[in-house]
UniProtKB/TrEMBL annotation:
InterPro entries: Cation/H_exchanger_CPA1, Cation/H_exchanger_TM, cNMP-bd_dom, cNMP-bd_dom_sf, RmlC-like_jellyroll. This is Sodium hydrogen exchanger family protein, putative. It comes from the Eukaryota. The lineage of its organism: Eukaryota, Sar, Alveolata, Ciliophora, Intramacronucleata. The chain crosses the membrane at residues 34-52, 58-74, 95-116, 122-147, 154-176, 221-243, 255-272, 278-296, 317-337, 349-371, 383-405, 417-444, 589-609.
Amino acid sequence: MTNQIESVQDSHVAPNLHNFHHSADQEWQHQEPLIVFFIFFGLFFGGILRQVNQVTKIPYTPMLIILGIIFAIYRDDLGFIGDSIKIWSGINPHMILFIFIPVLIFESGFNCDWYVFKRALINIILLAAPGVFIGSIFLAVCLKVFLSYDDISWYGALTMGSILCATDPVAVVALLKELGASVQLNTLIEGESLLNDGTAMVFYQLFINLEKGKSSSPVDIFLGFCRTSLGGPLLGIFMGILGSYWIRRIIRDDVLTSTVTFIVCYICFYLAEFSFLAVSGILSIVVLGLFMSANGKTKIYPESEHAVHTVWSFAQYGCETLIFLLTGVLIGVEIVGQSTIVMSDWFKMFIFWIFMIIVRWLMIIILMPLLRKSGYPITRSEIYVIVWGGLRGALGLTLSLMVLVDQEIESIRLKQLTVFYMAGAATLTLLVNGTTCGALVNYLRIIEVTDVKKRLVQNSMRNMINVCNDKLKKLKSDQFLQLADWNKVEKISGLDELKTEMYRSQEGVNISQRKSTYAAINKKELLNEIRFRLLRSMKGLFWENYESGQLSANSVKLLDEVINIALDDTQNPLKLWDLIFINFTNLSYLQLMFTINNWIIIGIFKYFFQIKNNFQGSMAKTYITHHLSFVYEVVSCFIICAHEIEEIQNYLPLSKSYIEEVGEELQNSVKLAEHYIAELSDNFPQIIKSIHTKRAANGLIEAQKHFLRNYKTKGYIDDTDYVQFRKRIDSKAVNLENMQFDWVLPTFQSILLQFPIFSSLTDDQLKLLQQNQKVRTFETNEEIYTKGQPFRNIYVITQGTVDDKITDLFSITLGIGGFLSFANCVSETDEVSSSTAVAVTSVKTNCIPFSIIKQIMKQNRVFEQKMYMKSMIYFVRINPENAGPLKVLNENNLNDYCEHAEFFSLVQTQNITFEHGAYLIAGQIKDSSNGNVFKQFSYIYPSSNNHLALEDVYVIKFMGDIRHKVTVMDSTAEEKGYLKYQAENQEKQKSNVIEMQQMH
């Protein structure tokens, strides 16, 4: 009987269980699409609000909060939208922490300005560690004493205080980006928000355990605190090292590079929170992001960097949108729908919001004596912004929800009040503080625009209008645009508005001719602005060189930091070389390592490793090679970029005397850098030779990459061919990076065979040079030849450095393989030197009689042309008044320009045209249209006119327009300069025609 009953019961239970599981499965299948729908539904409304923000400038995140609250209140009337909101409102807060928070915190740290963060690190730690502790105690006192919450314990109040102290980095970063505050203030507030999330989490775990009654000794509490707060950063550094090591070995794989950053981010967080380590996951992510900002960015392949930032920007935007929308939903559900919260709690919440601001102000005042001793100075106005900008948001709300679902906490009142106050604090700070912070910044005038900046903006507008006017003229001549309404075109494009604004400005009505004056502006302010702009331009040039493969990661990091340090001190003269030099190993120490490399014991050590591990070179040799490569790369790039900045100075729309003053400061550093390069070449010539070889090979590899990218873009090759070619090139780049070079000094014979200037010589001509050369040495500061004095020899440098002074203001520094000098070889002044050559270091040269060079020039037409082409730079500097736009080009750009030119030797009465201009080396030539006569060492402006040779002529004809390097300083600089010189030339031609007419 019993068995029958049991069987009957089982028969009833089984169908019930089946029906239960079936209904549960159906419910879950119904919820799955709603969960996914909420994500894209949220992103859809986020996209709409993002566009509203762009038009109205209403802060983005508060709008998301409001929208979430509205959706939560009316969720019962929204159909399946309301159903998806109900599902997400019941999400476990741990899921928010695990899914969204790592992305938001890592992205903020990854995009943080590491230099500014490092400079303000002590202040950030003060605000984030002692500041959170002080704030937690004060807020607990406010809750217990001033608001009389006797139904919660002191440990509960401290738990609430630690949660309410956590400012939200996502909200803060979004706000600061919209306000446009200074980088220093942004980084201080953002850095504090990043770190205090971690410290707030640590204090939260400490106080919540005490609230739960988990007894621990003070020693255990201290050790646990140290493990959590220190172990997290150590784990972050370790994961950053692993991630950087992996990323460094990824070549041109955007997908894998982006994936690795996500891998290290989430694995770091999960190892911290869920493994035996039991450390702070948030602190580990903060430090990981900062480590990747400092070291990881430069490990990313330059072509992949943009893709990585794009992926993380999207991830950050998606998580930010969803988490703030969800925050609004949870606020609406927990506050509006919470029946246990009485009216007095609502009133106290508004009072508590005021207490929060006061407590944050008190915390900063207490720490102010320490804050003033390090980092950037903090003004009183900035203190108000720091206080008012302490926004609460998603992380604090997540922690409060974790308290709500924690079954070990017995006090229901504590759970409800924690969520209520955190939700209220997030709502009020985001809606009130967030929307009014911009007005506060403007009222306090924290973002000041100096008079010189205003003037430069006006000048930039004027330049843009000039460019638009030129473009408008070209468009009007386009046969396919003849029916366009040009008044409407100007109105639609905004050109009409720009012109109106300029006409109303104090600059005057003639926007194309009127020049701005800076006489009324303070000299110190002008110098500060000039230094600031030149330094920012140099910084841009350094990163351009890095992205083009001409600068390594370590080199660009050093130069970038040097510029950042200088930008912090634009009130004083530039001393860039001092900032660079302190990072280098002393030359005497390198000499010691060089000596160690030749010791017999090290030689045996080297031989052993060559056999066992195929290891090339000893440790001493490896250290010397790597360090000197780094040093040479840094110094040479600094010199090159500084020379390019010289061109920018000519177009900067500021007082020329002040520009020259700052330019002289920069040139002082350049001279010291050039002297250091000379010392390196003198002490380690064989290593410098290897470095030159490696850099030249790298330049060719980068040229191949550029060529392939260009061909792929134009459709000349398909993707398959592109991938195959790129794999070959990338393998060459890897081999080059790992290649070791022999330390062998170049001989005179190797110079003759390898250097381009001698490449056209026949075997007999090379033999003639070798037979007639002799070695000559010169001591430091000894003159090799003197300007205006007769010379009899040409010199090829095989060791040391020489300064060839063309004028008092210009000289060329030459090292191994340098030729002294091209101008002397083509001189028509009876063998009189056109410059003065001085040995910067001890110099060894091969001396060749001038008569032998002349003899070979007569025999070898190509060699003669090269001599004349190379000599142009000398004649441009000697005769700058007739050099036209060439006089503003630096040495490298002049040489590049000459590469796209042809040499012509014309006989009398022969005609030629110069569509892109020319430079006359010898003879006279006349423009047949206007009669303008050009003499030797003169620039001939581009025109389609015929030019008649009045006598035998040597002329360099350019094959392209002058288009020297466009910089971040002024994108229209070169066009302005060219138009200026063209206008000057037209005026000269007009005056010549008038004079000729008057003569007749």
